[in-house]
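Thread title: Can someone regenerate the structure for this chain?

I was given the following input by a collaborator and told the matching structure tokens would be attached. They weren't. Posting the sequence so someone can regenerate them.
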Amino acid sequence: MAGRHGPGLRVRLVALCTVLAAGVSALLLWLGWLLVGGVVSAVPALPPGTTVRLRDQPVSVDALGRALAEAARSDVLRAGLIAFPLVVLAAAVLSWVAVGRVLRPLRQVTGMARRLSVESLDERIALAGAHGEVTELADSFDAMLDRLAAAFAMQARFVANASHELRTPLSVMRTEVDVTLADPGADLAELRRMAEVVRAATYRADALIAALLVLARTESGVARHPVPVDLAQLIDPAVAAVRREADQRALRVTVSAAPAPVTGDPALLERVVGNLVENAVRHNVHGGWVRVQTGGAPGASELRVASSGVPVAVSRVDELFEPFRRGVDRAAGGGSGLGLSIVRAVVSAHRGSVSAEAVDGGGLVVNVRLPAPQGSPRNGEAG
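Best answer:
Regenerated them for you:
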């Protein structure tokens, strides 16, 4: 099949092989023509002026030699002109067949690429046999399809969950407005109550949209120019933001802030600390505890946020980092379910790692590890 800008790869390879075969054949024919003439000319010569009789006709030795050389060359040239096109034709046919067999796996790859759509991402080439680089290409293509399928599935889940989460505050606002408008005796107090509910719903929708924007910005790799940041200096503002809620729940908050220098986006790293502290308070139990620690390790800085809370199944710990996943029921703790997703996205963007583990008796421990700037001293490790 012809390409967009000329003949296809098979045609070009066959043409190249045919031209090479024709060139080699022409060279061999020319060499044979020269060698035959040279061999005949190398026959021992008789004394000059000697004549020989051919069919009772005297012929000089010189004329005889020239005639034999020309006859031999003519025979070679005649046979070569017959064999040359046959050799070229055979080379073209064999090249066409051989190149076709070699390129067959490539046609499978291109055919699969043409058939691909969102609905057919589950198809794979699964090329069998030893084809060298072609097999590597097919395996790489299958691996790319695996990543695409996972990305599309994640995107579909994300969109569905985001739509559901955004629909909740909108439904609350619409219900409150409809109920109030349907009540002809609604007084000022009822209107104020309705306004408070609507305002709270708008705050929740705004917070969700802001979280979605942060997550999208982080996953797309858009970040400010990295600057030196100390994670220890981000703890106090994060704790101050949730101090009122922590006091209402009678939580014991302890902080151990050893220097933890990193390089990155200050706003995003502040969001990491804030989200972890906020989750630790929001998903806690009355009278529980929260411990926030920072410190250094060889070549890295660490942030550790541990808290009490409702029991979390070990099998569900990794799911908490997926968007809109919560370790507790929706009614038990608010939020959009994007806190840990944002933490993971930001940490990954900073070439770090984040892990979590369930606490015996209830609660969660989240560990964040980020690369430390080169040349920074080794600080005390986070406990």
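The radius of gyration is 41 Å.
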